[in-house]
Amino acid sequence: MEDTGFIYNGFRGAKVSLDGEAQIIPNGLLMLTNQSKRQLGHAFYPYPLHFKNLPDGNVFTFSTTFVFGILPKYQNFYGHGIAFVITPSRALPGARPTQYLGIFNESNNGNQSNHVVAVELDTIKNSEFSDINDDHVGIDINGLTSVSFAQVSYAIDQSDNRKNLSLVSGKPIQVWIEYNGVEGQMNVTLAPIDVSKLHIPLLSYSRNLSPFMEDSMYVGFSSSTGSFSTSNYVLGWSFKMNRPAKELTISQLPKLPRLGPKKAIQIRERVDICSHIKVPAGAGEGEENSAAGFFDFWKTKIKNV
Questions:
Q1: Backbone angles phi, psi at 275, to 5 degrees
Q2: EC number(s) in its UniProt entry (predicted)?
Q3: pLDDT at res. 229
């Protein structure tokens, strides 16, 4: 029985395979994307893990926890988010940024041959994927139309009273993802790092993942940006097969950069952005697909930030 595991309280010296915009910066933060637009970044544990009990082909129990932070340049303009990904290949061939989160593209999104399971931390509503809002968590199987999803929140007591949470607050948030291979159930829980985890998940999805996964799989993160500059970070990460993931030592995690004062977006800057953005054909609600739609988007979303 596999019991592979690792823990990174910060990423200095960590065994991580990087591509795209992803890099480990000097203080130990894993930066998946920087302030560049329409870019993607990947960071994977460099070795494949065995996820299946070969006699019966069932996926093992596994658990992971990580702390992330999303820092937009402007308070109300950002995109597109981060995903924890389990995939047969670190390369993710043909992956696109923007609403595809660096995992899929127009032609392979939803294909059963992908053998990809992901948990998305999505900051942009895309109607083509039936997203519920701009701030949600979803469990994805082979595509970005989530099989289970919810607005971001965390339990504040054992009665499951909840408090909403913003993915783009610029503050670190901890995520726990736990799959029970015997019961075929995945739980996803989030909370600010200064809040203890309650055993009341945000998402609880019952499905045997065995038909959707191969035995040899990679685990890691994918992130993408769109029309607006956003930096996406992971501060620490722990993973374990057939056991609970070791808890991160919060005091040892690197600090996120400080969010500077937000300037107002002036009319000239808005016009400059409008005149330079090239919108891809077939883009969804998160990537404005017409001039009228784009200006409607600005009219409803622009605020002083």
A1: -80, -15
A2: 2.7.11.1
A3: 78
User: What does DSSP say about strands 148-151 and 203-206: parallel, antiparallel, or unpaired?
Assistant: unpaired
Structure tokens at 64: 């992971």
Q: Average pLDDT for consecutive 10-residue bins of the chain (305 residues)?
A: 86 96 97 90 97 94 97 78 96 89 94 97 90 91 96 94 94 98 97 93 98 97 88 97 97 89 46 43 42 39 33
Q: What is the pLDDT of residue 1?
A: 53
Contact yes or no for 227/92 (Cβ under 8 A)? no
Query: What are the structural domains, with CATH classification, of the chain?
Result: 5-260 (2.60.120.200)
Torsion angles phi and psi, residue 85, rounded to 5: -130, 135
CB 62 within 8 A of CB 241: yes
The encoded tokens of residue 99 equal: 């609403």
Give the 3-state DSSP-derived string for 224-275, with helices as H, strands as E and coil as C: EECCCCEEEEEEEEEEEECCCCCCCCHHHCCCCCCCCCCCCCCHHHHHHHHH
State the Cα–Cα distance between residues 233 and 258, nearest whole angstrom: 13
Specify the pLDDT at position 2. 61
HSE (side-chain half, CA atoms, 13 Å) at 270: 16
Backbone angles phi, psi at 81, to 5 degrees: 135, -170
The phi and psi torsions of 22 (rounded to 5 degrees) equal -65, 140
Compute the distance between CA of residue 117 and CA of residue 139 in angstroms, rounded to an integer: 8
Q: What's the pLDDT at 263?
A: 47
Q: Tell me whether strands 216-225 and 230-241 are parallel, antiparallel or unpaired.
A: unpaired
The predicted model scores a pTM of 0.85
Which neighbouring-strand residues pair with 86?
117, 219
Residue 52 bridge partners (DSSP): 59
